[in-house]
Amino acid sequence: MSKSNKLTVQKIDISVSSVNNEDYFSLTDIAKYRNRSEPFSIINNWMRGRTTLAFLGLWEVLNNVAFKPLEFERFKSEAGHNYFVLSPQKWIEKTNAIGIISKSGRYGGTFAHKDIAFEFASWISPEFKLYLITEFQRLKNDEMVRLNLNWNFQRTLAKVNYRIHTDAIKEKIIPLELTKEQSAVIYANEADLLNVALFGKTAQQWKNENRNLEGNIRDYATLEQLVVLSNMESMNSVMIHQGLAQKAIAFSFRPSASSLSAICRVDNSASAVNNNSASVIWSRRFCFSRAFISLCVFTVIPVHS
C-alpha cells in the first residue's frame, strides 16, 4: 500500500497509512461515524473498557518487545470505574505502545494497526465494520492488479486474530510439561470449538465429507465467515484469559452458529468472494450485515460513565 490512502465508507473518508509496511487506519475518521464534531471523545470512551484494554494489551505483548506490562496492569485494574479516563496519548506514553499512534498537524489524528482498527469499528457499529472491511478488500484488490501481487485478502483476514488466539491457549490452557503432539490436540480442540459454532462441524468431520478437496475447512470459508471467525477468535482469547471454561465459551458462541445458518445459508464448498455481479454483491452485503450484527451483539460492550 502507498504511504497514504483514503477509503470512503458510508460517506465517511478514512485515511489509511503505511507504518513499517503495516496498514494503520485513522480511528479519528472511523469515530466520525458516531460523532463528527468530537471524534476523540468516542475513542477515549472505547479505550476505557476492560475488554478493549485486554485486547490492546494482548496485542502489544505479542507484537511489541518494548511494551511495559506493569503500566498496562495498572490501567487494567482501574478500567471500568467511573473515574477512569484513558486517551491514546496517555496509553502510548505510559506503555510504549505501537499498535496505536498519534499524529499531530493538519493530517494528524489517532491511527491504529488494522487489527485494532477493526476491533474499534466493531465497537462503533458491526455493520460499519463490514463495509470498512469490504472497502479495504477493494483497495487491496486494486493494488494487487496494479502491482501484480499475489495477495489474498481472505487468508490475511483469517490470520488477523489467529496468533492472539493461539497464544492465549498456549499461555492459559496448555501445561508446560506436555509434548508437542499433546499440545497440538489442545490447539485442535480449541479451534474446533469455533469451527462447530460457525460451520456446524469439526475440521475432521469436514475433511471426511470432502476428501477430494485440499486444505482445511477454513480455506473454503467465505469472506463473511472469516470476518465472523476473526471476531470469535478475538473474543475467545479474551475469555480464555478471563478463565472461562470451554463449556461456558461454547454456550456463548452457540446462538451465533444458528443465527448465521438461518440468515445466510452460506455454502461452505466454495467462496463467493470473487463474484462480481452487482446484485449478488449487494445481496451478500445485506445478508452479511444482518448476520454479523446478530453474531456480534454479545461482543459489543460500551462503557458508560
Quick recap:
This protein is an alpha+beta fold. It is 59% helix and 9% strand.
Word description of this protein:
A 5-stranded antiparallel β-sheet has the order 1-2-3-5-4. It is globular, with a radius of gyration of 19 Å. Helices cover 59% and strands 9% of the residues. It has 14 helices and 5 strands. It is of the alpha+beta class. It folds into 2 domains: 4-119, no CATH class; 152-296, no CATH class. It has helices at 27-31, 39-47, 50-63, 69-78, 88-95, 114-124, 126-147, 153-159, 162-172, 180-199, 203-209, 223-241, 246-264, 278-296; strands at 4-9, 12-19, 22-26, 100-103, 109-113. Residues 260-305 have low confidence and may be disordered.
Salient structural properties:
single chain, 305 residues, alpha+beta, 2 domains, 5-stranded antiparallel β-sheet, 5 strands, 59% helix, 9% strand
Would you tell me the overall average pLDDT?
A: 75
Strand content: 5-15%
Helix content: 55-70%
Strand order of the largest sheet: 1-2-3-5-4
Organism: Pedobacter nyackensis
Protein name: KilA-N domain-containing protein
